[in-house]
Amino acid sequence: MTDYQAMEDQASMGILPKRDVVIVRGSGARLWDSAGKEYIDCIGGIGTANIGHCHPAVTKAVARQAERLVICPDTFYNDLRAELATALTRVAPEGLDRLFLCNSGTEAVEAALKFARVATGRTGVIAAQRGFHGRTFGALSATWNPKYRAPFEPLVPGFTHVKYNDAAAMEQSIGDGTAAVLLEVVQGEGGVRIGDGAYLRRVAALCRERGALFIVDEVQTGFGRTGALFACEHYDLRPDMLCLAKAMAGGLPVGATLCAETVRNVPAMSHGNTFGGSPVVCAAGLATLRVLEEGGLVENARENGAYFRDALAALDAPYVREIRGMGLIIGVEMKGRVTPILRGLMERGVMALPAGNTVLRFLPPLTISREEIDQVVEAVGAVLGSLEA
Ligand SMILES: *Cc1c(COP(=O)(O)O)cnc(C)c1O
Fold first, then answer.
1. In the chain, N or C: fewer CB atoms in 10 Å?
2. Is the CB of residue 58 less than 8 Å from the CB of residue 51?
3. CB count in 10 Å sphere of residue 1
4. CA 100, 243, 55, 343: dihedral to nearest 10 degrees?
């Protein structure tokens, strides 16, 4: 136990269980701990480090902007915010031409829920079983897992959860009181479950027919993760709102709610925040977008994601039940608990994360190379081999 571990244990709330390691440095798809041990990072800051840790373009943009202007409230115009808003609405799925900037995924969802109420005059929200949308009260009400919800009930009224990828269930649920349907394209925290394209398009059509708004949560799948800049592109989805965050600014805290013309009548002064769209974060966001557009990383996610899944599938591993994924969000469902596998991988210099109790999840930087993927898969094979022995 290092001094830093003792200090954190002493001074923090201790809500999340911690791994026995102090991480002090990152570069690309690598991390180093305080003892100098190197890891291949398939956690990627929980899917925030898509362009790699400490990408020089982001580091430079942040340093430069930090010397010029760090904070600028939303009641002023700002050069960097103007540029980021323009760039983001340019690359977003068609029709999403306005945005609201905040600081996290849960805030992006919270804004979408509030906007949906005022835009429709309705209060019902339909979300999916196994869906995850964040931990503030509105977003938590849309989140399904009872482990996150139960300690904090009662939550916001009006939320229902239906089976994912089940169009009939959605057909029965959307009614006159439904303000919005909120779904992920790939359920990340819920176990890397891939949305069906025909299902998602059907939900969008039902929303349009019945006067509800279709909100897509791409907090985890956005910015190249699935092999397209946004996962919506795979299925030609045009949601009324799109929630973004995690990988948007090279690992800095950020969130955005993109809105179509169906969402315009939000009353003046009715929503806002202190830090959203601050110049340093916008500079990081602009640099990140440029790297994603010019660096071939989106193609890398698509091609190396397929390579990664194929390599995992080629392992002779009876402990594996199913391999799911889209680009470089990959879930390996096991026949038992995933905790000992995560521990074994870390000992072998590989960081991965769980999605529930039985799914091993990989969210590496999109810069990860085939050599690094080979090392990860070899480690997975060795750990599974030792478990089965
Ligand atoms: C992580 C996540 C959130 C919440 O984002 P925070 O920044 O942790 O608040 C919301 N939706 C999805 C799909 C996520 O993966």
1. C
2. yes
3. 8
4. 140
User: Does 154 sit behind a cis peptide bond, omega within 30 degrees of 0 on the bond before it?
Assistant: yes
Q: Give the number of the atom of ligand 1 that is nearest the alpha carbon of residue 184.
A: 13
> At residue 376, does pLDDT exceed 70?
yes
In sequence order, what DSSP letters do the residues of 314-339 get, joined into one string?
TS--TTEEEEEEETTEEEEEESS-SH
Only one residue has tokens 């039940």, namely: 321
Binding site membership of 106 for ligand 1 (Cβ less than 6 Å): yes
Task: Dig out the tokens for 52 from the structure.
Answer: 């790699």
Local structure of 80: helix, strand or coil: helix
pLDDT tens figures, 92-120 = 999 999 999 999 999 999 999 999 999 99
pTM, two decimals, is 0.98
pLDDT tens digits for range 248-261: 999 999 999 999 99
Q: How many whole angstroms separate alpha carbon 293 and alpha carbon 57?
A: 13
What's the CA gap between 185 and 197, in Å, rounded? 9
Q: State the DSSP code for 230.
A: S
Tokens representing 389 are 């022995």
CA of 190 to the centre of ligand 1 (A): 12
Q: Write the single-letter amino acid at 188.
A: G
Distance CA 166, CA 52 (A): 36
138 lines ligand 1 (CB under 6 A): no
Q: Could you tell me if residue 213 is left (phi over 0), alpha (psi between -120 and 50 degrees) or otherwise beta?
A: beta
- Which amino acid residue places its CA nearest to atom 6 of ligand 1? 105
Please provide the average confidence, as pLDDT, over all residues in the chain: 97
389 pLDDT band (50/70/90 cuts)?
low
Which atom in ligand 1 lies closest to the alpha carbon of residue 107? 9
41 lines ligand 1 (CB under 6 A): no
Distance separating alpha carbons of residues 112 and 367, to the nearest angstrom = 31
Q: At residue 314, does pLDDT exceed 80?
A: yes
Distance CA 238, CA 91 (A): 13
Report the residue among 103, 106, 194 best suited for mutation to probe ligand 1: largest number of ligand atoms under 8 A from its CB. Answer: 106
The neighbour count for residue 47, using CB atoms within 10 Å, is 26
Burial status of residue 135 (CB atoms within 10 A of its CB: 0-12, 13-18, 19 or more): middle
Q: For position 27, what pLDDT does the model report? A: 98
